[in-house]
Amino acid sequence: MPFDTRSDEPLQDEQLVEAYRKGEKSALDILFSRYLTKILSWLFGRSFFNQDKDYLIEVRDEILLKVCEGIRKMPEAGGFSSRGPGSFQAWLWTIAELECLNVDKKRRRLYIPFSQAFPAQPDSDDESASFEDNILFKVNSEPDETEYARLKLERVFKRLKPDEIELLQLSVRMKYKDIIKLQKFSKYKTIDSLKHKVYDIMKKIRKNKSR
Amino acid sequence: MKTTNAKSKSAKCQKYEMAIQDYALGQDMEMSKEELFGHLAQCQKCQKYAKEMRATTSVLKAQEYDSSPESKKHFEEFMAKLHASPVACTTAQGEKILNAEWEFGSTAGLVYNYLKKLPNNKAPVDDMVKELGLTTSIAGMSWLAGENKLGLSLSGKDAYTFLHPDVPSGSGVLRS
């Protein structure tokens, strides 16, 4: 199959893997750019109580590196199915999960994946466990959002008004006190009124998500 | 009576929901972490809310970062390095041949990032070895010293290592 990025039909993941293995480097760029934000979002979700963006980006690089190495080492006859447990996507998430455990171990960082938190309650006599760790066990006692739920959330975002999505995006980047200084959001006179607006948008997201 | 109790509980929870929202977005909270977590530990409704906020803000944060020029530049540089690294191969004896430049450069990135986050970009060598392991520390320090990006000092019996102040962020350091 010739590798043609001008094709109307986007190539499937497994087709991009094959193209890369045949020497088409840009196929890997396309493949990775599909999963870049998904992986970071997944990492942010896993480390809700210990968020360090720089560290998470390093972990994402490690995951992509491992995926690349895996593709390069695949036997000639190897290949991915288009869906299901044999798909590229399923393989990538397995690598991501393993790599998370691996980098934490290597760097001895306090970063508790939810999967480790599920099975056991923290030992109350363990002085090394911080207050936040103990809470982590309680709050995250259920599995992380599935890929399906994340996709649904992305769709809900698209249904928000442009102003609302812009406000949400600013809220993860800037402090409220700086946002109300912006011309566009100066109608919110106080931090409290802005905060309530964000709260209302979040409520809207919850409502749309549960539909 | 029951309805009044439920209403007052709901109003009380709204305060905590606001705090969870602030926490998840990285905003200043109007209460202490201890108070919030103390409430979370016993309120299932707020635990559910925290999980939802976790999902929502994680997608938002990732989208926000990846739409920035900083992220695009990082991705381009990362891919360029990835394409430049040759495929690992195996000898007839089954010994895996690694890309030495890549491997040592990677350890340099770990050392660089470790020092970069410390005050004065300086650390006792022993502490770094404990944190990163002996092999990584030695390989990374050697690489950075060879690039004239790292210094060593001795205070009493303690050896310290530090980044030279004029090292531009990430220059020549893989995965920084």
Give structural notes:
The complex is a heterodimer of chains A (211) and B (176). Chain A is mainly α and 211 residues long. Helix content of chain A is 63%, strand content 0%. In chain A, helix 1 crosses helix 2, helix 2 (25-46) packs across helix 3 (53-73) and helix 3 crosses helix 4 (88-107). Chain A is elongated, with a radius of gyration of 21 Å. Chain A starts with 12 loop residues before the first helix and ends with a helix. By secondary structure, chain B is mainly alpha-helical. Helices cover 62% and strands 11% of the residues of chain B. Chain B has helices spanning 2-25, 33-40, 44-66, 69-84, 100-116, 125-132, 134-146; strands at residues 89-90, 96-97, 122-124, 150-155, 158-163. Chains A and B meet through helix 2, helix 3, helix 6, helix 7 and helix 8 of A and helix 1, helix 2, helix 3 and helix 4 of B.
Summarize this structure as a short list of keywords or feature phrases.
heterodimer; A: 211 residues; mainly alpha; Rna Polymerase Sigma Factor, Chain: A; 2 domains; 10 helices; 63% helix; 0% strand; elongated; B: 176 residues; Arc Repressor Mutant, subunit A; three-stranded antiparallel beta sheet; two-stranded antiparallel sheet; 7 helices; 5 strands; 62% helix; 11% strand; disordered C terminus
